[in-house]
Amino acid sequence: MYRYKGFDSALCGGSVAALEAVVNAWMEGERPRIRQMSQSVRGQHIILSFVYEDSRELEQRVNLQSQATAITGAFPRLFNDEPVDDRPTSPSIPATPPPMH
Hints:
Blueprint: E1 2-8, H1 16-30, E2 33-42, E3 45-53, H2 55-73
Region (Disordered): 75-101
């Protein structure tokens, strides 16, 4: 699921260095998978917007998928996608009956 996070330099006293520190701390702590970033100006302040995926949610989904694969891989497949040729392959039994005389 995508999430949104916004940062406003006004909340950092107008300091770009403070804004940078806040954004870096968020990135290090959350480790988001950023999908989109935008920057805009509001008066004398900078607004940073991020659309991201939470890395913990991604890890949980991957773990659930691998667990499901492990479970389903333990059981034989009942239905195959490929057709099975059930005709006998023994040379003593012909695949077609001999012609009648």
